[in-house]
Amino acid sequence: MSNFTGSYTLDPAHTVIGFVARHAMVTKVRGKFNDWDAKIEVADTPADSTIEVVIKTASVDTGNADRDAHVRGDDFFNSEEFPEMTFKATDFNIDENGDGTLTGDLTIRETTKSVTLDIETEGIAEDPFGNTRVGFEAKTSINRTEFGLNFNAPLNTGGVLVSEKITIEIEGSAIKNS
């Protein structure tokens, strides 16, 4: 991990914190969050590293204003009462190439559950502006009902309107702080 040691800031212009849900059991709906803050400290010893992310739930963006308003409401995030969701890393199982798993506590609507993300580092390079960048992808799945996101509607054909399984996908570019 020594190649990656240091303090990093996620580049908002080149990072997407997104999710995928099944809709009506036949299609996928993708969304992302537009307002978040992440603090990343990579230590020589992975166990000494820290990652903390705060996401503003009202910043959810699925590309449809009516759906976004519904997701911000009490059926899902209840953004007025629970304006933030958080992730705090608790365990790093990352190899020298930056690949592996990252486990942490995800809190949504005051419910905290441990989740494990699969991490794949795409590379480390100096950009044209002299910044050291690390590109990575992270992915996991959660059951949204475990976090109190219980809304659903039955379909005449069987199944439900919105899947309980939500896939979280992060494509990131982290810039090393000088």
TrEMBL record:
Pfam families: YceI (PF04264)
Superkingdom classification of source: Bacteria
SMART domains: YceI
All residue ranges annotated as the Lipid/polyisoprenoid-binding YceI-like domain in the record: 7-175
InterPro entries attached to this UniProt entry: Lipid/polyisoprenoid-bd_YceI, TTHA0802/YceI-like_sf
PANTHER family: PROTEIN YCEI
Family assignment from sequence similarity: Belongs to the UPF0312 family.
Protein's UniProt name: YceI-like domain protein
Organism the protein comes from: Corynebacterium ammoniagenes DSM 20306
